[in-house]
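Handout, page 2. Input:
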Amino acid sequence: MHQPPRRADHDLPRGPYLVYAAPSPRGGRGVYAAEDFAPGDVVEVCELIHLPALPEDRLEDSDLNGYVFDFDGVLVLALGCGSLYNHATASNATYEFHHDPDVIVVVAVAPIPTGEEILINYLGEPHAEGDLWFDAEG
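Output:
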């Protein structure tokens, strides 16, 4: 039987993750807690796929618009539910980029009860305010 290589260079937890995607009242899909999370709990670790560089106008016209992250100047798509988290200025979770391996780690910053939508602040820090590419509520 083929064994995948073990990565000894990190100790990030791996699934199964207790989140799920479902329609969101904010529009489109969102990510919801399937169990309670306390501040500091890892909600999900999302592997990243590096995408080819696209001119901004091509990205805006593609289905990827709104689902990719800028990871140190490189566009990435987050697997799992990673590209489906919705934005809130007063978010209940945050995300951290890790380079080795290339992952996004979603971490609770407030209590998140089962069934609640998990929201991140697209500007990177909970409660950060600034311009986004869409009209944001809350």
